[in-house]
Input
Amino acid sequence: MAELIEGTEPIALSPIPLYTSKDLVSDQDIRWCPGCGDYSILKQVQAVIPEFGIPRENLVFISGIGCSSRFPYYMETFGVHSIHGRAAAIASGLKMSRPELSVWIVSGDGDSLSIGANHFVQLLRRNLNVNLLLFNNEIYGLTKGQFSPTSHAGIVTKSTPYGAIDHPLNPASLALGADGSFVARTLDRDVKHLRETLKRAQEHIGTSMVEIYQNCVIFNDGAFEPFTDKGQKATNDIFLEQGKPLVFGAKGEFGIRLDGIKPTVVNLNDSGFSKNDLWIHDETDQSKAAILSRFFDMPGDEGFLPRPFGVLFAKPRALYEEDMQNQINNAVSTKGAGSLDKLLSGRETWVIE
Ligand SMILES: Cc1ncc(C[n+]2csc(CCOP(=O)(O)OP(=O)(O)O)c2C)c(N)n1
Ligand code: SF4
Output
């Protein structure tokens, strides 16, 4: 260690910024269509990550297959553009062997909820400390516009010329059903909200699932317009804040009450109810999160409830990688380090002469 020369003062070192968002931009040409919502998500991810203080060499982005899954090419970090629907499995293996890494999974609705649906569920129930960004455009983009598990019934696509008859899957409900410890929803077009939600996901210790409504301008343009359009957003969206009442409307004139377990919309101006009577958001309440995730009608449907955005549920629980390491440590301390040769030869071996 260097010694100070007598009579000199130690130099006060100012903290060196690790890197900026520009350092996360790779030299690859972006192949997304002009206007694709993926650009906005990429930009916000590059904007917030430097704030987390994670060494760049510890960042890994892992994707499956799809337009959204091209994401790792555009991040100047480590990354894997893997196999269709299997990003969760690859990320799990990496996190178990290298728990110090900050692992981000980027996947589309087709990738994670069709071919990868089993892997999506297993990841959430295991609860490794990884972040899953689910880009939902309610369509298959890369394969040119076939319907996906989140597409609306009736949608006419190349693979459903007479309209889809499949019932659409609700990603937040599925994630909660798998006991996901963090479930949130945000929008590509609300960059502030997107950034805040990404920060919350990163802070969460456990698997965070962030569904991001992403506009595919080519094959499903405007699918989320009722929730992103400035004129409609106020009445169609509800932005959740921990400890705050569920209020919406252009002037905050509507609220949600819980009548038993039934959510009901009240007009705060003429119903006799005040903010004190409303449902207060508690993101640690799994049952209430399940009710919130069922606010899933389209505007105009009978009994429509505003679509919730923000953190529906967040409650840390045991981490898979820690439980696994504890189990290994316990086994080693009680039985010794073991021998691979012995394990391979098993209890009964024969020598054939
Ligand atoms: C095993 C396998 N099956 C099917 C495909 C074809 N395929 C490539 S991407 C894709 C769907 C991608 O849709 P989504 O995940 O919604 O991503 P987007 O392109 O919309 O971002 C499919 C079916 C494939 N590449 N591999
Ligand atoms: S096809 Fe859709 S999702 Fe794919 S890059 Fe183009 S706009 Fe984006």
Q: What stands out?
A: The first strand starts at residue 59 and ends at 63. The chain has a mean pLDDT of 95. Residues 65-68, 84, 108-111, 115, 135, 137, 139-143, 148 surround thiamine diphosphate (ligand 1) (CB under 6 Å).
